[in-house]
Amino acid sequence: TRRITANDIRARKGGEPIVALTSYHAHTARIIDPFVDFLLVGDSLGMVMHGLETTLPVTLEMMILQGRAVMRGASHCLVVVDLPFGSYEESPVKAFQTAARVLKETGCGAVKLEGGARMAETVRFLVDRGVPVMGHVGLTPQAVNTIGGFKVQGRDPGGAESILADAKAIEEAGAFAVVVEAVVEPLARQITEAIAVPTVGIGASPACDGQILVLEDMLGLSPWAPKFVKRFGNLAEQIEGSVKAYVSEVRDRTFPADDNVYKPKK
Ligand code: KIV
Ligand code: NA
């Protein structure tokens, strides 16, 4: 069976919900790949893997390295790789150079970039040159310093208007889907009804055409997660339990046991 493409995702508008997760890492990609529609190598890896407070310090090299790891683990899903802060905003040409490196060096099927109307020209430039682009509007974490924090977007009518205009601009520019992050429910519904490509929500209500979460947040590994995350697992507790068992078995010399020891040939 062939790998899911950006066009397949676009064709899911209004149908069965699209399901996506982030992935930064080969073994987790392999586990998730059969069940979801796309994997996002998100720049949230800066926070999750590196303990950074924002995504701003994430480099293109970090994204390419983890993008390659995920591609090795995933054979069914579309893999989308985030363009990191500073690698694409200044011009369409710069964005194309960055996106081309990502596609060539990872083998992924699409890139994602943040921003609405101001990025429309860039989205069109990339799509016209063979780069499928996923948009990202609402809370755009790379703009945390101008937004003034990680806050719900679109609560005021002016803000909602401009986010709706952003989503439309990105769609008109040729994006195959748009991530909508941390917006109030009526706005998520309005955007989803207004554009012809799927909306993939994160903290954006069930009105979207699909959902995405950060894997480590939904697994209960992250020490903290926003209100919109449901914890479907408790990995932090499971890791703690396993580590405590290992520590106590080493200390009381029950590990390594006979099964775990190499014996000379008889
Ligand atoms: O980097 C990321 O994980 C993302 C998703 C939250 C959409 O951009
Ligand atoms: Na991101």
The biggest beta sheet reads: 8 strands, parallel, barrel
Strand content: 5-15%
Question: Helical stretch count?
Answer: 11
Structural class: alpha/beta
Query: What do we call the CATH homologous superfamily?
Result: Phosphoenolpyruvate-binding domains
- What's the Cα radius of gyration? 20 Å
CATH topology: TIM Barrel
**Biggest β-sheet: strands ordered side by side in the sheet:** 1-2-3-4-5-6-7-8
Query: Cofactors and ligands present?
Result: 3-methyl-2-oxobutanoic acid, sodium ion
Helix coverage percent:
25-40%
What's the mean pLDDT score? 97
CATH hierarchy, class: Alpha Beta
- Point out poorly predicted stretches: none
Number of strands: 8
Beginning-to-end CA distance, first to last residue: 48 Å
Key descriptive features of the protein:
alpha/beta; binds 3-methyl-2-oxobutanoic acid; single chain; metal-binding; 266 residues; 8-stranded parallel beta barrel; TIM Barrel; 11 helices; globular; binds sodium ion
How would you portray this structure in words?
The protein has 266 residues and is of the alpha/beta class. It has a single domain (6-233), classed as Phosphoenolpyruvate-binding domains (TIM Barrel, Alpha-Beta Barrel). 39% of the residues lie in helices and 14% in strands. The chain has 11 helices and 8 strands. The chain has helices at residues 6-10, 26-32, 45-48, 60-73, 92-106, 120-128, 144-147, 157-172, 185-194, 215-218, 235-251; strands at 18-22, 38-41, 78-82, 110-112, 133-138, 177-181, 199-202, 210-213. It has an 8-stranded parallel barrel, surrounded by 5 helices. Helix 5 links the parallel strand 3 (78-82) and strand 4 (110-112). Helix 2 (26-32) packs across helix 4, helix 4 (60-73) packs parallel to helix 5 (92-106) and helix 5 crosses helix 6 (120-128). The mean pLDDT is 97. The structure holds 3-methyl-2-oxobutanoic acid and sodium ion. 3-methyl-2-oxobutanoic acid is lined by residues 22, 40, 42-44, 82, 179, 202, 212, 214.
